[in-house]
Amino acid sequence: MNIKRIRELVDIMNDNGLTEVEIEQEGVKVKLVKRPSGVVEQVVAPTVVTGGTKTSAQPLESAAGGNLKEVKAPMVGTFYRAPAPDVEPYVEIGDTVQKGDVLCIVEAMKLMNEVKAEFGGKVVEICVENAEPVEFGQVLFRIEPA
Question: How far apart are alpha carbons 65 and 59 in whole angstroms?
């Protein structure tokens, strides 16, 4: 399935007021889900998409007693900490991020998808190694909100 076909599906969703579309073609299943904010996210997996529904960041208790929020993978793909192999990672443990800052890239079907912070805070844990495959909803980062 190519990007042109995915864009056509997004147009169909928008034209018909749909919030979710799922299609299987050539052994690849694509599921598009529109969040309440209007952002469409893509989930791609060979043959079968497994797992439950997407959940928002869930607070966790940190060792310091504060709440941590999780940043989860918006799709199945490959996790990259930097835009290129010879470039510094977007974030390191201990960095402070603002809402909208790029945290990493998840590559899916040769498309590089930036994962941005939905809230500001301090990065306390990076849960995935560079170039590792990730599943939809897998925790990528834990951030202590500012």
Answer: 12
Contacts of 45 (CB under 8 A, 6+ apart): 28, 29, 76, 136
- pLDDT tens, residue by residue, 104-114: 999 988 889 99
- Predicted confidence (pLDDT) at residue 2 exceeds the cutoff of 70: no
Strand intervals (E) in the chain: 20-25, 28-34, 40-46, 60-61, 67-72, 77-80, 96-97, 102-108, 111-116, 121-126, 133-134, 139-145
Options 2.40.50.100, 2.60.40.10, 3.100.10.10, 3.40.50.2000; CATH for 60-145 is: 2.40.50.100
Q: Residue 130 and residue 47: Cα distance in Å, rounded? A: 25
DSSP 3-state of 135: coil
3-state class of 141 per DSSP?
A: strand
Question: What average pLDDT does the structure give for the chain?
Answer: 77
pTM across the whole model: 0.57
| Per-domain residue ranges of the chain | 3-46, 60-145
Asked if residue 37 has pLDDT above 80, the reply is no
Grade residue 51 by pLDDT with cuts at 50, 70 and 90.
very low
